Amino acid sequence: MADKYPGTQAVTRAIHLLKLFDDDKPVWSLNDLSETAQLNKTTTFRILSALEHEGLLRRTPEGNYRLGSEMVAMGGRAMRSNELRTVSHAYIRELSQTTKETVTLETLHISQNNPRDTAVDNQWHMLVIDETLSQYRVGISQFIGSRLPVYASSTGRAVLAHLPEEMRVEYLTFTRTPFTDNTVITQENLKKEIQKVRKQGFAIVKSEIEVGLIAVGAPIFDLNGEVRSAISVVVPSFRVKRGDLPELAKRVVSTASDISHRLGYRR
Asked: At residue 124, what are phi and psi to the nearest 5 degrees?
């Protein structure tokens, strides 16, 4: 990996190692980390030992590594200092209470340097930064920190519809993987879906990430009129009756509009 700034190589390597720990692989062995990060074992062990000493990593009884308690504390501080999350929380909680369904707040994240991201499309995802859970016993939970595909999520499409044209064109050229038989993956069909979102002001995604899951998302505009975030209501399809979605979409759009207004957006 290139060292952009003299003297920062060790820091860059440590950050890359920490980024390898995710929901799909939360526990790593020294050998696997060394191989994936393309570092020799001695260097990897030295960095891991420093991270463990600071509480950012911890050793398992088997001698492997997982994220440590200090990472949890730092993540909590980061979320509390996030203006978007602070402003939005009361609104998504109210929306969840009125719909009784799970509501998420997500933001577009483009990772340029994750060594596990071999495909460009994998570097674009919607990151869940806040969530209020369904009041039903059978509900949906995305979990804070979850990453969702931009092309197959209601929030992702809500954001895509309002990105600068050059960014949208670039993203639509990427190869996409279907999650279900309903996943829209062709450039032509995605363009149609995005045009629909721009026209109606919200996105509805049905059974594209998981069969039986419906999500309604709407964009959040910042002070400069830019869109990088969105909210969604996520509901099991068996709980959706004929005529429910238009009313649900209206509530989602209204809540997203209120959040945008609090962030300083004015049409």
From this structure: -105, 125
